Amino acid sequence: MEIRQLRYLIGLAEEKNYLNAADEMYVSQSQLSKKIMQMEDELGVQLIDRSRRSISITPAGELTVQYARQIMALYDSLSRELDAMKTQTENTLTIAAIPVLAPYRIPALLAAFAKTAPQVKVLLREIEAKNIFSELAAGGAELGLCRDIYTNPTLYEFIPICSDEIAVIVSASSALAGKKNIDIRSLQGQSFILLDEQTMLKQFEIDICAKAGFSPDVVYTSKHPDDIVEMVAAGKGISFMMRRVFSYINKDSIAAVPLAEPVTSRLGIVWPRRAKLSRRAELFAAFVRKNGSGGLC
Question: Which domains does the chain have, with CATH numbers?
Fold first, then answer.
């Protein structure tokens, strides 16, 4: 049995769709299906129920997925520790980061860190939020830079850098723009323009509305904040945006109105709890712990 077969089975169990799972793991559907069937032949059990139109994991498949996760956790831990042993002389720290660096003064934080640890070279790779944790698991990055709303605290360590707050973004000419704050429940019936699923903020924002008792009418989504700003400015709908991001954009054509009941989020660095950090990562984590939460943000 191959390690990648275990990854394929876990991915298929999570996505419950051959196309989505194949896209997520950059393989063809036929290759994914072939590897799963090879596992079934080797184990002598049926892992996938193919009698239905949608993907269904059999009880034997569910049990295999549980053990596959444990095996992959051990394998990834082994890989990280071996990598740490092989690269003790290397000084590059790779961080997978969501693309919101400037509003949170991340470049300034990195510059300050460089003065305290000039021997460490930080390589920052911007990727979408939904890919941060898979990148950490695959060893493509040692640390992640993301929001706490995405992070499972039982599985990941998290050190905050900045705190932020959701605001309602409206056209400057809208009647809502003049309000001191907005009760989220009063937004039921409005047209919403949101970031798409890749950023993971969309589900967070939908959940905010759900807690207020309604499902938002989403008329447009984009992974580009500039597109959302232009749509809101044109009066096509309203949106949510972190206040620091809004302040950085600083457009007169839109206004940010606080929620009556604040919803906050923190940006910080993250890594798997079981991971053994390299010395360079430990240095950066210690620096963030000392200077985060407002120190440089």
Answer: 3-76 (1.10.10.10), 86-162+266-291 (3.40.190.10), 163-265 (3.40.190.10)
